[in-house]
């Protein structure tokens, strides 16, 4: 689905673009997609010379669920001393939190296609569980234990 945009970015920026075809939910639940992206990135970083790429210029990028995967790969590799450091991460409308789907941004944009609030929750549940049977609980916010709400409140507050 992203081949043409990857080709465009490569051509216009004079860059090498490696697009990872990771396994998709619901057939392949978490962490399959993450493992695919992490393995591909590690392989690429270990072989930059083979690909003719300056290891100091490698950036990861993703949109939507791919943005979530790019962020997770970046965080996982941040402490690795055996691999070149990633130069940057580019996250386009990345799904980065699943604690509270009642934050103002979700309500303000709940009717904006293609990321309708219910659709975001539905897709997130397919990614994690392979099904969306607990959609009501997630939309209400009852999927998070009270002690976790307290722990993350300062980062998740609408204020």
TrEMBL record:
<dbReference type="GO" id="GO:0016787">
    <property type="term" value="F:hydrolase activity"/>
</dbReference>
<dbReference type="InterPro" id="IPR013094">
    <property type="entry name" value="AB_hydrolase_3"/>
</dbReference>
<dbReference type="Pfam" id="PF07859">
    <property type="entry name" value="Abhydrolase_3"/>
</dbReference>
<keyword id="KW-0378">Hydrolase</keyword>
<dbReference type="InterPro" id="IPR029058">
    <property type="entry name" value="AB_hydrolase_fold"/>
</dbReference>
<dbReference type="InterPro" id="IPR050300">
    <property type="entry name" value="GDXG_lipolytic_enzyme"/>
</dbReference>
<protein>
    <submittedName>
        <fullName>ADCL3 protein</fullName>
    </submittedName>
</protein>
<feature type="domain" description="Alpha/beta hydrolase fold-3">
    <location>
        <begin position="1"/>
        <end position="132"/>
    </location>
</feature>
């Amino acid at each position: 689905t992203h081949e043409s945009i990857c080709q465009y970015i490569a051509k216009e920026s004079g860059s090498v673009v490696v697009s990872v075809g990771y396994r998709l939910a619901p057939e392949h639940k978490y962490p399959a997609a993450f493992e695919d992206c992490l393995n591909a990135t590690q392989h690429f970083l270990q072989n930059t010379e083979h690909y003719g790429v300056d290891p100091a210029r490698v950036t990861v990028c993703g949109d939507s669920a791919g943005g979530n995967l790019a962020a997770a790969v970046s965080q996982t590799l941040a402490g690795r001393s055996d691999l070149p450091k990633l130069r940057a991460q580019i996250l386009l409308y990345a799904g980065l939190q699943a604690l509270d789907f009642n934050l103002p941004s979700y309500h303000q944009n709940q009717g904006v296609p293609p990321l309708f609030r219910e659709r975001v929750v539905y897709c997130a549940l397919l990614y994690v569980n392979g099904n969306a049977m607990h959609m009501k609980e997630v939309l209400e916010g009852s999927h998070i234990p009270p002690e976790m709400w307290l722990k993350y409140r300062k980062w998740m507050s609408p204020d």
